[in-house]
Amino acid sequence: MTAPTEATAAYERTDRTVPTRSADRAHYDRATVHSILDQAYVCHLGFVRDGAPVVLPTLYGRVGETLYLHGSTGSRPLRAAAAGGPAAEADPGLPVCVTVTHVDGLVLAKSAFHHSINYRSVVIHGIARTVTDEAERRSALDALVDHVVPGRAADSRPANAKELAATAVIRLDLAEVSAKIRTGGPNDEPADLSLPHWSGVVPVAQTYGTPVPAADLAPGIATPDYLAAL
């Protein structure tokens, strides 16, 4: 069977990935999902701990159809994500839901009820598992660094043995996935259009400032070109 590609395949719809409201805003093509994931920095990792829901913000990186997240080996969710791969039933991993959201605009309507935001979001359901293979762990950590600033992994010291021992990496396959996007202006009721209130969209965009060198940066080290590319 030929592996799916961005150009030829979409994620399969499931009961958990089809929204109950505004289903017309849902997208399942890989190109859209990957674009939303690749342009964000922080995801929210949701899971159940001791019978109660927990949601944690964390960095991540995507490699193909896999999302990698990292944290301390003492982190409870990372400990709960038992060693992965084609494991036995006694090693089920951790059921999770991961979300990523971009805010693109503030939508101000004539009525309070119809205020909204323009956004792009991705929701991923699946089983997170700990990465134990050292080569994959190093590759995943490089992906996490390069996700924040492309090219940075090759321009920094890689983790040493002590740092690797203190760092846990989990993987989540992109299988049960959907994107949702809202664009455009307010959806005012016809009866409200004559009201004397401003309506429209306030665009929201991410910007980068000029890089500020560390106070202890050695003389002669120039700002890397990959930072200028931001």
UniProtKB/TrEMBL annotation:
Q: Which Gene3D superfamilies does UniProt cross-reference here? A: Electron Transport, Fmn-binding Protein, Chain A (2.30.110.10)
Q: Which InterPro entries match?
A: Pyridox_Oxase-rel, Split_barrel_FMN-bd
Segments of skewed composition (Basic and acidic residues): 12-22
Which interval of the chain is the signal sequence? none
Task: Give me the ranges of the annotated region Disordered.
Answer: 1-22
What's the protein name?
A: Pyridoxamine 5'-phosphate oxidase family protein
